[in-house]
Amino acid sequence: MSGEVFVTGGPRSSGEVFLYDAVRTPFGRYGGALAGCRPDDLAALVVRALLARTPALDPARIDEVVFGNANGAGEDNRNVARMAVLLAGLPVSVPAVTVNRLCGSGLEAAIAGARRIALGESDLVLVGGVESMSRAPWVLPKPERAFPAAGAELVSTTLGWRLVNPAMPAAWTVSLGEATEQLAEREGISRGDQDAYALRSHRAAASAWDCGFYANQVIEVPGVGPIRDESIRATTPQALAGLAPVFRPDGTVTAGNASPLNDGASSALLGSASARDLLGRPPLARVAAWGVAANEPQFFGIAPVEAANRALKRAGIGWSDIAAVELNEAFAAQSLACVRAWDVDPDIVNRHGGAIAIGHPLGASGTRIIATLAHTLRARGERWGIAAMCIGVGQGIAVVLENVGA
User: Which of helix, strand or coil describes residue 258?
Assistant: First the structure.
């Protein structure tokens, strides 16, 4: 079967999956306020914070913890989800698993948790994601034979391709930025369009913080204090236009219209209808359906289009029903390509800013965007929304939420 789609349903009486609560750290910039925090500590922090907000819950009743993490090459090794459970002080009887779908890992964690609930295997699953791109290590490959005469090169694990298999076609293994240049060229997306999109992201994120939209979603990191997402800038059209292209001398992708490197963690509680009694609180939203899709690796940026279309089909609704979209902004060009392919009103996309401004700590972004989506639907009294992400190596992922209070 090409790709994966799944509709909630299973042996329980309702077969429904609900999002009950979610929290995250502020997203720190590369080398910024969170660079001194280990990723396993960040993961444990959002687990503890989520449980502190739910005092009625006995932590032993959590059936599973699922965390997304894209790198896993440093302090996030050895199943960082399990490390978070132990560091957070949960009972040792609570199992945990880490999943990796690169940039979509956090959303994959939510889907994995939702699937367990929909199948009747669990009543309550704590999901989330974490990434410290500042602390991602350099790695040194082992030599293929003893006593090599030649030198060896350290490789950064922060982002993108590394230790590439020579059997991979060169067209597939271009950098994420060069791949985005190719997509922008193919889709006719100009530098001006990308910069305008980035400016909107920064302004919307700053406005959302100013009006308190994120106040109840973002927790304080001990030793760091109350901070906003560090990558938000009070930028201008002139400042963005003055940035040089990064990946081609005559290119359109700059540091200003791409998501930055970041650190952060996020978590959420998913449960069945009966989990309401365990938590002592009503749900925020229903997880209605989800889907994934794949295409050529170099055109990873457009893959959310099909993933979202599949998720909508399985939810039994169409784009005309969607009132809010959270699209992870890896790059302005890929975001614009998706929005135009969906033919949705751009005004309903990322009303409270996106990853270009907020940041994209790979494994943590998926849970961040579904939480933002749920709160957006609740604040506006709208029923249907969709969260979608592009994923390196040519994949896309999407989740449909229904506001149960609408």
Answer: strand
Residue 68 near residue 106 (C-beta atoms within 8 A): yes
Residue extents of the structural domains in the chain: 9-134+260-279
pLDDT tens-digit series, residues 102-161: 999 999 999 999 999 999 999 999 999 999 999 999 999 998 889 999 888 999 999 999
Which residues are designated catalytic?
A: 103, 360, 390
As a CATH number, domain 9-134+260-279 is 3.40.47.10
Among candidates 326, 343, 308, 331, which has minimal Cα distance to 183?
A: 331
Tell me phi and psi for residue 354, to 5 degrees: -135, -170
Euclidean distance between CA atoms 236 and 240, whole angstroms = 6
Per-residue model confidence as pLDDT tens digits over 146-191: 999 988 899 999 999 999 999 999 999 999 999 999 999 999 999 9
Whole-angstrom Cα distance, residue 198 to residue 231? 12
Tell me, rounded to whole angstroms, the distance of Cα 263 from its chain centroid. Answer: 12
